[in-house]
Design brief:
single chain, 246 residues, alpha/beta, eight-stranded mixed β-sheet, globular
Length: 246
């Protein structure tokens, strides 16, 4: 069974403090991941690493840059965070290996992503746990643009025909106007009024962008908080189900 799991940037970093890892949350997440029995692909967000530098240079999923120094700053920050996540997993016996999307992905002029999945598939077959991250990708006509972790989730879950998909955020699920967890989302229009922008710097669309991206998947996705990560790894379906419910 193949599981694609995203650890949100706001879970593994202190999102309003540039390049600051949330040590306790990352350690807890790594503890939970270490108990997984499935073939696992881990993707983590940018948090205070990538988003901070991307905002500073005016780069987003739609606004690109041709400044090589900006690319180095943004990708370099994400590579540093990735190294930390891989190290935490390795300490717990997880056979984690880094996979950097900037080295493999590209967009055409219309923004369509090409992200070859063969490297990830082969790594899984060989017993590794690939650890990817939000990053930049080169885009025809725009230089380099942001590739969000949520887009990676959608791309790889489809390419790998994942059996389970989980997105660990800082909230226990997608919340309605009253702060209650929405059990299931099948159409974006049903929850559009309840979804606001992220409070901290986020160049990839916040919860609204997350839900829009994940609704495009054929399989349902679970969105849940850090406390429910052990439940998801154990095979349960905590938080909000985004999609048709399986």
């Amino acid at each position: 069974m193949t599981t694609v799991l995203k650890l949100g940037g706001s879970v593994v970093t202190v999102k309003d403090r540039p390049e600051t890892v949330d040590d306790d949350r990352l350690a807890a997440a790594a503890d939970a991941v270490a108990t997984a029995d499935d073939d696992l692909v881990v993707i983590h967000g940018g948090g205070s690493f990538g988003h901070h530098h991307a905002a500073e240079h005016g780069v987003s999923t739609t606004d690109g840059t041709h400044d090589a120094r900006a690319v180095q700053a943004i990708h370099g920050a994400m590579a540093r965070l990735n190294a930390r996540v891989v190290a935490e997993l390795t300490e717990r016996g997880v056979p984690a290996v880094p996979v950097h999307p900037f080295s493999a992905g590209a967009r055409d002029a219309a923004g369509a992503l090409t992200m070859p999945a063969e490297q990830v598939r082969t790594a899984l077959d060989e017993g590794f746990v690939p650890v990817l991250h939000g990053d930049l990708v080169v885009q025809a006509g725009k230089g380099a643009t942001v590739l969000s972790g949520d887009e990676l989730v959608a791309e790889l879950a489809t390419a790998l025909t994942a059996d389970r998909v989980g997105v660990c955020s800082t909230v226990p699920g997608v919340l309605d106007e009253h702060g209650d967890v929405i059990e299931r989302i099948e159409r974006f229009e049903d929850v559009a009024d309840a979804l606001g922008a992220s409070e901290a710097t986020d160049v990839s669309g916040g919860m609204a962008g997350k839900v829009r991206t994940l609704l495009a998947l054929s399989a349902p996705v679970q969105i849940f908080g850090p406390d429910a990560l052990p439940e998801f790894v154990a095979g349960d379906r905590p938080g909000t189900t985004v999609g048709d419910g399986g």
